[in-house]
Design goal:
15 helices, 2 strands, mainly alpha, extended
Length: about 300
């Protein structure tokens, strides 16, 4: 019996709902909730990850918030050439990596630190074609090289596609629901635009529900929960269709009355293992980290006028 069959038609218990809410709260931790930002001073997107070691926080930030924690090597090299990164800084960064060893080139000796510094500042570079020829020529004649090339080509034709697909499958199995959402996988695999469409739909209703008096016409039924208001308003969506989903009105009407139950039903339909739920929620919430941070802030500011 699969996950869907096991959960179909079964109303979740209150303890399951409480557990789900706890997992969602846990999943929000990587997302910062500084608010309101009426004047720009600073905003640390990794604020929710400050309890982690720096390298771990950067890794999680890249995973959930799609940020880039470090400058590229080319940018760092450019700054070194401009004098924005000093020689002392380079040595300080490499001192714990360098070993007590030397390398000789002719009558010149270089320390391990010298080699690391050269690679860091200049890169490994490319070996010129004429140098490759000079190295290969003494050891292999042209017929041998051609024969070796043909053998490699033959092996590639027979095995490479299968090996590539197997490797790709293993990588996707490992990363699916841990590094990206199912919607992102769909977009990457089939060239669709599912994630952006879903995000746009969510933003449309969030903007109305969380409005703080700026909109000339307030969102109806805001006194209800966001989920209940959406369920009613979506049935009268002026676009005539939601994301091109067939029979979408009946599908909305048949959704559970409680948002927790709807989430649990979706998780069953998507067959996402329970051990991955909290990380998957973080990936999904990180798609709209600004809105998530705002909701997080509002939920904690119980005395806020608009929250009341």
């Amino acid at each position: 019996m699969n996950t869907l069959e096991a959960n179909k038609g079964i109303t979740p218990s209150e303890s399951q709902r409480i557990e789900l809410r706890s997992l969602v709260n846990l999943a929000c931790e990587p997302i910062s909730h500084f608010w309101p930002m009426k004047t720009f001073i600073h905003h640390n997107p990794l604020h929710g990850l400050e309890h982690l070691p720096f390298e771990k926080a950067i890794t999680e930030g890249q995973r959930f918030l799609r940020g880039r924690g470090y400058l590229s090597n080319s940018e760092n090299r450019k700054y070194f050439q401009q004098g924005r990164i000093s020689e002392e800084t380079i040595k300080e960064a490499l001192k714990d990596l360098s070993q007590d060893a030397t390398l000789s080139f002719g009558d010149q000796k270089f320390t391990h630190l010298d080699v690391l510094r050269a690679i860091l500042i200049h890169g490994t570079g490319k070996v010129a074609t004429d140098v490759c020829s000079a190295i290969l020529q003494p050891s292999l004649n042209q017929p041998d090289i051609r024969n070796l090339f043909e053998k490699i080509q033959d092996i590639s034709k027979k095995k490479a596609p299968r090996d590539f697909l197997n490797g790709h499958t293993v990588k996707e199995k490992k990363e699916l629901a841990t590094q990206y959402t199912l919607a992102e996988w769909c977009d990457q695999t089939f060239g669709t635009n599912v994630q952006d469409q879903v995000n746009a739909e969510v933003i449309k209703y969030l903007g109305g529900f969380l409005d703080e008096g700026h909109a000339p016409w307030g969102m109806p039924m805001r006194s209800k929960t966001f989920y209940k208001a959406w369920k009613e308003l979506a049935l009268d969506d002026a676009s005539g269709s939601i994301l091109g989903i067939q029979d979408w009105k009946n599908k909305i009407l048949n959704l559970p009355d409680r948002p927790e139950d709807a989430v649990l039903e979706s998780l069953a339909l998507l067959s996402i293992p329970k051990k991955l739920w909290d990380g998957y929620f973080s990936l999904q919430l990180g798609q709209l980290s600004g809105w998530t941070g705002f909701i997080k802030w509002r939920s904690e500011e119980t005395d806020n006028e608009w929250q009341n």
